[in-house]
Amino acid sequence: MIRNLLAALVIASAGSVSAQGLSGPSSVQADLEPGDGLTDPQYRSDFPRNIAPGWFRWKDRLADNGFRFNIDYLALGQTTNSDLGTGEAASGIVRFYGSWQATERGSLTFKIEDRHSYTDVAPQFLGLDGGALSITGTAFNDSGLLLTNLFWTQRAGDGSWTLQIGQIDVTDFVDIYGLVSPYSGFQNLSFNTNPTINTPNQGLGIAGGLKLSENFYAVASVSDANADPSDPNFDVFSDGNLFKSLELGYTSGFDRIYFDNIHLTLWHADAADDGSRPEDYGAAFSAAWFLDNKWMPFFRAGASKGTAALYDRSVSAGLGYYGRNTDLAGLGLNWAEARGVDSDQFTLEAFYRFSISPGLQITPSVQFISDPLLNPNQDNITLFGIRTRIVF
After folding, report:
1. Could you give phi then psi for residue 361, rounded to 5 degrees?
2. Coil, strand or helix: which one is 102?
3. Which of 54, 189, 302, 308 has the smallest number of CB atoms closer than 10 Å to its CB?
4. Residues 224, 228, 232, 233: what is their CA dihedral angle, to the nearest 10 degrees?
């Protein structure tokens, strides 16, 4: 089965396909592009370009020669009224990422980051610390220095296929939609990559997709299920524990593939040889459509069989609003069930991202978790957060 899937990838690769390749809203490609793909965005400021014009002119000259990069810093602080745990968390992420257009159709993508916590509990785990079975600060943890991207991308000249191989992050392209990025959109995992999918950490893998017609596409991947971006290696070839995914989708046009998108994702993760992770598999469905280049209603659902994913079943729905100044507002509601817990849990998240400039964003948010699964003595938990991002 794996051999056939790999063969299909090599023959058919290209995913969320055309000019964007496999570059979703949380990918390096997306982070290198200012704005949200809207026409004529109106920014409030030119900061920090206006205080370091020489630096940005140098970056622009490099970009003209095919090498683009950013250095950014993100910080997230959260506080909660839970009667369990520490009640507060804060952490930061510094990232160096970019791409080199080495040939007309081939490019090298890289991302190195350092994730560090300012408090005993990082925001990623503040919900769990307070008794909610919920990842409330996706990606904001204390993992230290990580190599999260180092892969080669090869594209067809007509955009009909794309292939990536190397150190990849499957959350860049598995079950994504326009509001998926924890760096610029929702913070709770319920509204990022589907929480019923047991996605691995960034590691060695191969991914690709195929433009099936003017509106339909397929994306598939095989990657290391035991990956550790703090210690990248080639052990996947010896232990053979793999994560596999296959997505079939529909879009209004491949220049809007992550704005107008309906897809079905199937996935499977092998059990770890050391017994630390059982076999897991499942399916996820997502539908999101960008109306009048302003409104994005979405509906997402998933189910898994196993114990490794956060939830057994999950349903999310909500709405995003994009302003011409690239402000972004989001409102989402999630229902979830987890294996071994009789009750279910509801999560509401609302945020507003103020885009001061392409290089400075401030995002206050609130999360409301009803019937927290790990804290049955408390009816609900409210969590407030503020996220900042500055790009150089």
Report:
1. -135, 140
2. coil
3. 54
4. -50
